[in-house]
Amino acid sequence: MTGPSPAERLVDLLNLEEIDLNIFRGRSPHESLQRVFGGQVAGQALVAAGRTVDEERPVHSLHAYFLRPGIPGVPIVYQVERVRDGRSFTTRRVVAVQQGRTIFNLTASFHIREPGFEHQMPMPRVPEPESLPQLADEIRERLGSLPVPLERMARRQAFDLRYVDRLRWNTSELEGVEPRSAVWMRAIGSLGDDPLVHTCALTYASDMTLLDAVRLPVEPLWGPRNFDTASLDHAMWFHRPFRADEWFLYQQESPIATGARGLARGQIFDREGRLIVSVMQEGLFRPHSPERNETPPAPAQEKTPGQATST
């Protein structure tokens, strides 16, 4: 018998246990990572907030801070504060706690659907996703096979990732590279029909590759790492309904990197070219010092671009 699909595992990960009024508990898979993936914590926190809001009020924005690294394998408790229930808008604040310590907080705003005028920036012209190699296949083509840890991750990957531009593997390929990246994504398998699940699944995916754009001018996405990297904060604006198990294009760019931090912004389009989500994130980019005896605690999930469990 085959096990659950990657999408089914993701839905299960987002299915929080309600342990008391406004208090939820989420699983944290025990994987070979130093820290819990930030997208997992953000997605679970949004599930907790959404469970306390009427279905006719979908989330329209979230703002979050990664405060401490989460410990893999240890459950995370999400405490929801019902800040406001207005006529049109609802506000929730969520604190994620692990072993008695706050690791993450999120504020989310929900809005009834209202008619209004529309305009948007156009989706860039890019190849169709079917014409691009899957990320794992692109790595196998280069290396001959996936290293065992990556092979294990690839089997559990919740999203099919297909980079618009071929991966660069060494610094000699970086000359003239701009701080921009684009990747097609979709969940591997059906996520069902609950809109909140699709919103939280895309929130999970939004942390997977966004900081790639910051690194591209100075470091290949694969190969030796020169920086200790972590998400610092994360903001999203949800513009239109969507399905995260259908193809969406994640267009990413970095307007600035300075002071050991890099800012990235993303636009997510559906296959029809509609702008469905906007994203902003700042990340830590501290030069890596292998000889350092003590590493200062980082505030969030360490990033490994292009992998399901880290960026």
UniProtKB/TrEMBL annotation:
NCBIfam families given in the database record: tesB
Residue ranges, annotated region (Disordered): 285-311
Ranges where the Acyl-CoA thioesterase-like N-terminal HotDog domain occurs: 32-111
Residues passing through the membrane, by range: none
Naturally occurring in which organism (per UniProt): Streptomyces smyrnaeus
Signal peptide feature range: none
Keyword terms of this UniProt record: Hydrolase
Pfam families per UniProt: 4HBT_3 (PF13622), Acyl_CoA_thio (PF02551)
Name of the protein: Acyl-CoA thioesterase II
Residues of the Acyl-CoA thioesterase 2 C-terminal domain: 157-284
Keyword flag Hydrolase: yes
Keyword Methyltransferase assigned: no
Entry's family note: Belongs to the C/M/P thioester hydrolase family.
InterPro entries in the record: Acyl-CoA_hotdog (IPR042171), Acyl_CoA_thio (IPR003703), HotDog_dom_sf (IPR029069), TesB_ACOT8-like_N (IPR049449), TesB_C (IPR025652)
Classification lineage: Bacteria, Bacillati, Actinomycetota, Actinomycetes, Kitasatosporales
CDD domains: Thioesterase_II_repeat1, Thioesterase_II_repeat2
